[in-house]
Amino acid sequence: MANKKITELTELTSPAGADLFAIVDDTDTTTKKVTVSNLMTQAPVQAADISGLATQVSLGNHEALTQVHGISAFGATLVDDADASAARTTLGMPYISSGTDTNLPSSPATGDVYLETNTGKLRWYDGTYWNTFNYDSQYDPNYAANQLGYSGGLFSSTNYNISVQPIMHFDAAILDGSDQANNPSAGSAVSAWGDRSGQAVNYDASQATGSAQPTFNVSGNDKYVSFDGGDSLDFTDYTLPTAFNVVMVTNTTADADTLLPIGTDTASQYIFLEYAGKTYGISGNVTDNTYGPHYNSIQQFWSTRDGSNNHNIYVQGGNSIISATTTNSRTLAQIGKAINTIWHKGDIYEIIVWGGDLSTTDKNTVNSYLQNKYSSLPTLTAFS
Amino acid sequence: MKYSVHSTQEEAQAEITRIEAYLGIPAVGTIKYADPEEVEGQWRFRVKESGPWKCDDVAANVVEE
After folding, report:
1. Beta strand B37-39 pairing with B42-47
2. CATH architecture of residue range(s) A142-373
């Protein structure tokens, strides 16, 4: 179309779809961009004459619809947002919606996504079924609900919340300390066991020497790290304060002599040890020879000291088998051994260390968490 | 517990190097198989009897203690 000055809309002929208009405002001589909105807002025409202009002026259906409905062309495909469902189909985009779990869309298309606002589950439609999408398992509410929750940790609102964040938390079910989805396959060598406590100081335990690496294993829902009597994982030294609590879920394999889930790097120092049938606390002078050992059987132990230096070893919950007063200092350094002479032989499921004495309520919450998690754990006695 | 036992540190280290090649070490998170240790005038290193680093069936001079 040749350049032509027009002053009335009625002078507009029917242009081809691709034709361009240069609109010049006689009052300021500014050349305006050719769009319907420019015509409506900036061209020197009377407002009364421009209603319905989009359909009267054949600028081309695409451009007119773009202006009317307010969305743009995607590549070579122009979509009309007035029909969003059809537009998504045209563009191959999934339909995303949300609502309660009882109101899933009745006629979904393959790839549609639905957020259940009452469960937190993300669902996607595979053409036949609505599937639950659990890419990050930490956000699976069913999984998270059964975790030990504490402020600053991986989980902070669960069925088992305690008030004190541990100093370190080694959980074989979340081997890297971040996400169970990262767990290796059963039988893999373990070069690192991540601390999942979320504390600023990271106590990830590691072992770079292959012949000293334990093995990751799975039995039913239980995950554990197996130590063969020559394996260990080292972490940054942590000197226990006067008051501390340590809980351990572990076992020894048949005929093994020692059960030592977590140890120091100084000779004759430990916070808990089963050796040759006897159970030791911090002090080797006070032992119990009535409880252990329980070969090939998952056990739970607490080694605790309160602010008054009262030290206790508990088994299967709140059953105290050793009670003593001791001011001995202990520095934790490794999982699976103490110095180079006492080694753990067996499986370690979980170790949690606190730099203080937990309340009775918190101790019982931890016990409930462990009892729920490990189905074969003996019934745990409540602390009182 | 099984050990590969050798007369000298060099022999023990050479055997460790051979086993590392066999097992594919170094690998992610694992920089070496073992360090030789001197015990009663001999040099030895521990050999795994199970797991991905099992090598008691291929190591030389294996002794069970």
Report:
1. antiparallel
2. Sandwich (2.60)
